[in-house]
Amino acid sequence: MAYPLLTNCPVCSQQLKITKLQCRHCQTTIENEFEVSKLAALGKEQLRFIEVFLKCRGNIKEVEKELGISYPTVRGKLDEIISALGYSTQKKPEIDKKKIVTMLEKGEISAEEAIELLKEEEEE
Question: Do β-strands 29-34 and 18-22 pair in parallel, antiparallel, or remain unpaired?
């Protein structure tokens, strides 16, 4: 019987180091220090949410229906997982196009910088 991979110590809650792998077929054993992906450190419920989110192709309305939860709950779970993976959940502040033009007119930024700022805004 296989158990789910433990990533944190059950005694002190610190991250465990994976040091041994074994082949089920030939019993070859490899010992070293191995890294696991960030996703491996997520809990069972978080992984289930990611699976549903991907299956729904990121459509939050469909995730709401499938899991029977509200929009704010979906967003909250997404933010929780994003944070658990080590990323910021803070949105970049939106840059006003008029402000960019004003800054350009006042000589506060160059034309190249203005173009880059406008491109960044379009990508978001």
Answer: antiparallel
b/e for 97-117, b at 16 or more Cβ within 10 A?
eeebeebbeeeebeeeebeeb
What are the tens digits of pLDDT across the range 17-34? Answer: 989 999 999 999 999 998
Determine the Cα–Cα distance for residues 89 and 2; give it in Å rounded to an integer.
Answer: 34
| pTM of this structure | 0.59
User: Cα–Cα distance between 24 and 66 in angstroms, integer?
Assistant: 36
Check residues 1 and 124 and name the one with the higher pLDDT. Answer: 1
CA distance linking residue 110 with residue 104, whole number of Å? 6
Domain spans of the chain, in order of start: 40-84, 93-124
